[in-house]
């Protein structure tokens, strides 16, 4: 269980200006779901710095890990 101030930090948005702008932009979008057909041989893999990755998922630089776990960056 996270301390209340940590939850506030995680869920908060300071003055919430960015939060309001993000919500407004989200509501302006019209998402049209599409069914993928004819892509049976599609490969989501990629190569990064000479290493083959089965999926293009990476961890971006972040901070304040110790607020969420005592082992901080080691967990990631």
Task: Note down, in words, how this protein is organized.
- The radius of gyration is 19 Å and the shape is flat.
- It has 2 helices and 2 strands, in the order ααββ.
- A hairpin with a 2-residue loop joins strand 1 and strand 2.
- The chain has a two-stranded antiparallel sheet with strand order 1-2.
- Helices cover 26% and strands 8% of the residues.
- It is an alpha+beta fold and 76 residues long.
Question: Descriptors for this entry?
Answer:
single chain; 76 residues; alpha+beta; two-stranded antiparallel ribbon
List the helices and strands and how they pair.
Layout: H1 4-11, H2 17-28, E1 46-48, E2 51-53
Antiparallel strand pairs: 1-2
In a few lines, what is going on in this structure?
The chain has 76 residues and is of the alpha+beta class. The chain has helices at residues 4-11, 17-28, and strands at residues 46-48, 51-53.
């Amino acid at each position: 269980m996270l301390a209340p101030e940590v939850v506030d930090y995680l869920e908060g948005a300071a003055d919430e200006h960015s939060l309001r702008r993000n919500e407004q932009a989200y509501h302006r979008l019209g998402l049209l779901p599409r069914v993928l057909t004819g892509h049976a041989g599609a490969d989501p893999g990629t190569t990064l710095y000479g290493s083959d990755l089965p999926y293009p998922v990476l961890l971006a630089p972040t901070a304040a890990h110790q607020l969420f776990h005592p082992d901080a960056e080691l967990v990631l």
